[in-house]
Amino acid sequence: MDSFVFLGFGLDAWITIVTVMAMFTVLLFTKLRSDVVFLCAVGILYVTGVLDAKEALSGISQNLVAVVGVLFVVVAGLTHTGVLHWIVQHLLGTPNTYAKAVARLMLPVAALSSFLSNTTVVALFVNIVKMWSKKLGVSPSKLLIPLSYASGMGGVCTLIGTPPNLIISGLYEEKTGEAMNILATTVPGLFCLVIGVLSIIAMRRLLPDRKAPEEAFESTGDYTVEMLVPSDNPHIAMTIGELGLNTVPGGSLIELRRFDNETVMSPVPDDEPLMGGDRLVYAGQIGELLELEKTHGLVNADHHVFHYNDARQDKHFLRTAYLTFGSSLIGTTMGTNGFEKEHQVTLVAVSRRGSRIEESPRDVVLKAGDTLLLESLNDLKTDTQAMSRDLHFFESNEIPNIGLGTVFSSLIMIAMVALSALDVLPLLECAILAVFAMFIFRCCTPEQAMRSVNWDILMIFAASAVLGLAIQKTGIAERMATGILDICGTNPIVVMTAICLAGTFITEFISNTAAGAMFFPIMYEAAEKLGYEPFPFLIALMIAVSSSFATPIGSPTHMLVYGPGGYRFSDFLRIGLLMNLIILAANILIVNLVYPLTPLT
């Protein structure tokens, strides 16, 4: 087994290569949970003997995983005390030019993303930006891509702003015994941010001018047709199922109101009997639905039960949601997937790229980015979390109270960053103290804190570190570093650029956390073989693996704006490829100015 060598790699190395490639393939082409895929990859490396038990479990025991988990709780304190809401309310204003609007949006978002979860910041801003864009007379699609880009570029400005920075700095500390300062990436990150903002303004013509998906709903007065059951209808006492009234040509039954107008059923059971005076509410193509007058003896009621704008006044609720990438609903129809029955909701309409699809909504084959208009007899607060793996709701269910807690949580966050930046205490200790302070000053409850921890991300984080260890242990990193040096020569800047370019490309298709873990040993080995301190190379790598601009699947924040902006896949590609190259050039330039290359001693 040890003597097996093919193309310079041993058996363990080939097992690792095949496992990593298979993992990438599964992540790209299936809907399996990312954390499960990563953990399975680690399991394969353990079972095949590439890693021993201690190495396979080393990711969970690392300090950097604990740091990420604790920081989730700190962010929960800031969120529940309304810090983000207060900042949003006082920042955007009414700029009179597009350039000023982009700066007003991107700079604060980047600042927040330097310390908070990028996803949290973007999710908060999406609805605000949509309303703000109407006020400014600008299409939301002109501002939502800059919003997502700003969160990514801001995240690299501190070690805690984005997971790759933490994982690379953690691995660096393990290798050298020296901890990076929390602000090590601040100057390079700010430089790239400024270049990014100016580039967006200069390339604004490349940003699409798309119609917002909600406009397809807002411009249509009625979504439903209401059919009345006459008292002499021959089908009275027969069930909804027997009459085939739940799904009819052109639409589907979303609600039944009894003649007393108090008994409301949604969704309507098949065994519910039809009674004189009942009102059946259908969603779909109005023209075809009116054929029920001929086929079932129903008559068109005098008015519709509800419209999009006054649904809440009528004691039932309409919510818009966006189909996320990786959703299990993609490629299915609501009429066959059982989603409505499971969550007690009814699909009223579907919008795609800003236009309502004019066919029975329950027959529409769903795609990523589709906007769904859902109706329910409750406000969906309790079930939104259960649906979050398939749909993303932007409306906030919880309005935080602005008060002393807002001040306390802000001061706690500032103190945590300051203590770490000044090397008074290590980052983990600072974060733990911040959590205690959040509890003491009641910025969040223990229950809110536990709900805020994203265990999926923690598992991916831990597994990514283990995969990076396997790449280094099996000699893959050394061989790849040698191969890059053979191609690029011994010029350190050329080598740095080549690896960063590869990292930028890979992170368009996999998580930036995984990309950081994969490329850390390669960059580290390359720097050492060239005879230079790896520190500047790793700072450049941190920025590179978070610079995913060209595909909507390159970042969770891109996925958040994809549906609301009515974007197409090519919209990101058109401006994103140029952004990748511009930020790569800015990255290499500023890193070499701020951290001059130093020969190893």
Summarize the structure.
54% of the residues lie in helices and 9% in strands. It has helices spanning 11-29, 34-47, 53-56, 58-61, 63-80, 83-91, 98-113, 118-136, 141-155, 163-176, 186-202, 213-218, 240-243, 286-289, 292-295, 339-343, 384-387, 404-421, 427-440, 446-452, 455-473, 476-488, 492-506, 512-530, 535-545, 556-562, 569-594; strands at 5-6, 9-10, 224-228, 247-248, 251-257, 264-265, 279-284, 299-300, 317-323, 346-352, 355-356, 371-376, 391-392.
Helical content stands at 40-55%
Subunit organisation of the chains: single chain
Strand content: 5-15%
Described by the principal axes of the CA atoms, the overall outline is: elongated
Label the structural class: alpha+beta
Distance between the termini: 38 Å
**Helix segment count?**
27
Instruction: Calculate Rg over CA atoms.
Output: 27 Å
- Average pLDDT: 80
List low-confidence stretches: 303-315
Taking the sheet with the most strands, its summary is: 6 strands, antiparallel
For the secondary structure, the number of strands is: 13
List the helices and strands and how they pair.
Elements: E1 5-6, E2 9-10, H1 11-29, H2 34-47, H3 53-56, H4 58-61, H5 63-80, H6 83-91, H7 98-113, H8 118-136, H9 141-155, H10 163-176, H11 186-202, H12 213-218, E3 224-228, H13 240-243, E4 247-248, E5 251-257, E6 264-265, E7 279-284, H14 286-289, H15 292-295, E8 299-300, E9 317-323, H16 339-343, E10 346-352, E11 355-356, E12 371-376, H17 384-387, E13 391-392, H18 404-421, H19 427-440, H20 446-452, H21 455-473, H22 476-488, H23 492-506, H24 512-530, H25 535-545, H26 556-562, H27 569-594
Antiparallel strand pairs: 1-2, 3-7, 3-8, 4-5, 5-6, 5-7, 9-12, 9-13, 10-11, 10-12
Helix pairs in contact: 1-2, 2-21, 5-10, 5-19, 5-20, 7-9, 7-11, 8-9, 8-26, 9-11, 9-26, 10-24, 10-25, 11-27, 18-19, 21-24, 22-24, 23-24, 23-25, 23-27, 24-25, 25-27
